[in-house]
Amino acid sequence: MSQPAFSLIVCIPGEMPIRQDLGEGVLTFGRSPENGMQILVAEVSVKHGTLTSVGGAYRLSDIGSTNGTKVNGVPVGAEGVE
To answer: How much is the average pLDDT of 40-54?
Structure first.
């Protein structure tokens, strides 16, 4: 069995890193257990964002989170960023 091409690793101070292998389609993330990846941090919204597979890359989108999402300090909205 081959390794997935991409993985997302979330590092929260004082906790073990969370690794999520990324496949095709959409991965939702947030505090809710209904998400594909649950992140239990107060600054993360119940339904925070998505990672969508787009032609061999991924698009990160904020889906109306309270605290927003940033990549390298730049806010990311619903249109997302690759």
So the answer is: 94
